[in-house]
Structures are given as structure tokens and as C-alpha cells.
């Protein structure tokens, strides 16, 4: 009998929020084809904060998009909870994304003509579902948005806008939140705040978060870092510190990481608090 090979990401006692087997994504064809993901197996543990890191072009965003059903796969299978999403029709996939997944992007993606509260509840309004009032209250208070609810995005700072986007992602109490560089457009103080809220969402609200980032300091807020290189998960680390992540990133080809910008180096919880990224 062969010994089972451990799958990156591993389960928590809470089970699996998403998983992929043999996930392969190629762009283009023939000579110009790019293999963005190369037969990736991964388990995303429920109730945990998972960070995805790797050099530019390693496939981080593609992995996120395929796991979240935002992009089709070339081969392999993907599940959200127990639902296989590969093979779902567009309409079913749209409904699944709307009902079961929350998204945060680097560029906030708020509607400029709606105020903060309207932005937060928009996905539920579109779905024709009223929010759970007690949960929504808790999300708004956790994110410190109570006195900003009537403001439009242009009347909010970048950090406040991302907090609104975070509240929008949380409002329907999704099974899983995917965040693609959520701190990429924020100064380090606002970025730290947003990471703290994502951490709170996992620790205090029982949410599951998957975050793509370039920043070892941001990754240090997670429970587990998955390292991608050339479309494969090549390593993982539990309870990462910023130093350990930076060190691992240095091992990638050329030693170059895009961590040279302002780093969100001081985890609000755990880690050793040393600022990195300026190294
Ligand atoms: N729509 C597309 N068409 C063709 N190639 C693409 C497309 N999207 C991504 N790729 C290629 O797939 C590979 C993985 O891209 P991806 O955006 O997932 O990497 P990444 O790790 O998120 O990069 P970055 O850190 O720079 O955002 C890259 O080689 C990229 O050029």
C-alpha cells in the first residue's frame, strides 16, 4: 500500500473550506502558451487565515481566481466546501460566488455613487436577501465603520474604503474570503489596520481568509503561508514570522522579492514585531 502524500495547506479541525486537485491553468496555446498553474493540489483549512506568496508571475492570482471560480481551469478539479465548482455553469457559479464567497481586491472596487452602508449590503441587495441585522452590526462595529456609513467612497480615506470592502466581503457571512493584495494600495498604518481586521474576522467571527500578498509582513498575520513558484506550491510554513517569510522569499531565484516596499511588518498578534522589508 502506498503512503498518502501530504497535500499543502492541510486540514484544521474545522475541515476544508476549499480544495483543488491537479489544478492546471494554461494561458494561450502553442509556442506562446504559459503554464500559470501546474497540477496544484491544495487544501484551504476552514477557520484559518492562509497567505499565498511567491515571486511575480508565480501564479498567485491565478490560483486565487481558479479557487474562487473567477476563472476557468485547464485541467483538474476545485471544490468550495463539498461543492465541486469545476464544471458548474456560469449562472450556478455566479450564484455560488455571490452566496458563499467574499472578495477583497487591491483597488477596493466600491461603487462611487453609493454610500458605505449601501456598498456593504450591495451583494445581498442584488441577491434579494436582507442582511442578518445582528451580524451586520457586529461587522460594522468590528471594522469601526459605525460613524462612516453615510459617507461615499470619495469621502473616505483609502484605509476606510478598504474597511468598507472588508465589511462588504464579510456581510453575507461567506464560507470563504479571498483577498488579492488587500493592502497593496494602502500606507503601512492603514494596511496594518486592515490585516488586523482580517485577523479578527478569523479569530473572533470564525471566518476563513485566503490572501495573496507580496509582503512578508502582511503574510506574518496569517496562520499558514503557501509559497508558489512556477505554478507549483513548493513550500509552506505555519505561524510565520515576517523574517522567516522574507528569508524564504530570498531563496527564490535571484533573491529578488517585491517586498522592498513599505512592509506591514508588525503583526498585531504573534510574530516578533520586527519591521522587515526595508532589508
Ligand atoms: N490573462 C492572461 N493571459 C496570458 N497570460 C497570463 C494571463 N494571466 C496571467 N498570465 C500569466 O500567468 C502567469 C501567472 O500569473 P499570475 O498573475 O497568476 O502571477 P502572480 O504570482 O499573481 O504575479 P504578480 O505577483 O506579478 O501579480 C504569469 O506568467 C502571467 O504572465
Annotate the secondary structure layout.
Layout: E1 16-27, E2 34-45, E3 49-53, H1 60-67, E4 75-80, E5 83-84, H2 90-100, E6 101-105, H3 116-127, H4 133-142, H5 158-171, E7 176-180, H6 188-203, E8 209-212, H7 216-219, E9 224-229, E10 232-238, H8 242-250
Parallel strand pairs: 3-8, 3-9, 6-7, 7-8
Antiparallel strand pairs: 1-2, 1-4, 4-5, 9-10
Helix pairs in contact: 3-5, 5-6
Organism: Streptomyces spiralis
InterPro entries: AAA+_ATPase, ABC_transporter-like_ATP-bd, ABC_transpr_LolD-like, MacB-like_ATP-bd, P-loop_NTPase
Domain ABC transporter: 18-255
Q: How far is it from the N-terminal to the C-terminal residue, by CA?
A: 48 Å
Distinct ligands, ions and cofactors found in the model: adenosine-5'-triphosphate
What portion of residues belong to β-strands?
15-25%
Q: Just name the CATH architecture.
A: 3-Layer(aba) Sandwich
CATH fold naming: Rossmann fold
Percent helix range: 25-40%
Number of DSSP helices? 8
Question: How do the SSEs run, as a string of H and E?
Answer: EEEHEEHEHHHEHEHEEH
CATH C-level label: Alpha Beta
Strand order of the largest sheet: 6-7-8-3-9-10
Q: Would you identify the regions where 5 or more consecutive residues have pLDDT less than 50?
A: 255-263, 265-279
Please name the fourth-level CATH homologous superfamily: P-loop containing nucleotide triphosphate hydrolases
What is the total domain count?
1
Structure classification = alpha/beta
Mean pLDDT reading:
87
Write down how many β-strands occur, each being a DSSP E stretch of 2 or more residues: 10
Task: Report the sheet with the most strands, covering strand number, pairing sense and barrel closure.
Answer: 6 strands, mixed
